[in-house]
Predict the 3D structure of the following.
Amino acid sequence: MAEILLFHHAHGLTDGLAALAERLRARGHTVHTPDAYAGATFTHITDAVAHAQRIGHDAIEEVARRAALRYRTADVTIGFSLGVFPAQLLAQELHRIRACALVGGALAPKALSGEWRHEVALQVHVAEPDEWVEPEDLAALIAHAPHAEVYRYPNRGHLFMDPFCAGYDADAADEFEERLGAWLARVAG
């Protein structure tokens, strides 16, 4: 089974993401949920983004790097929106990471001062359209990772998979979780 570092979105480590982590544990995976917000969650996106900007990318990166050091056998990263940054960063830098799932975002590999490692399995889930996902960044990542599984969820909100968030869609969330679970089973081998 996989040992996962799951990075939360701008709303924080919500009950929805915590519940997803529990369901993945019930499937036999080990899931760690580093919390860059030290327990704080934000209902409104404006408050969430303001908090993320206050603490800054350096703090989010530091939390990710500390988690990677603490959980030295973690071999899969999953990032949701804001959490795409640390999930993709670790997948590009750490040779032990063999799979990465990005939900609600993607970064051009060069934005993280590196290249995508071709041996890393990649799964991407994005709403379509999604005002928080830069199409150029997604295209650049896919160009570097042609083996990626990319799923688009038409006419859904940005964080459609989290019941805590305004764009939640139960059907799309179920479809997402089914795809993620099957992919994790394959990459965990």
Remarks:
- The chain has a mean pLDDT of 96.
- The helical segments are 15-26, 45-70, 84-93, 135-144, 170-188.
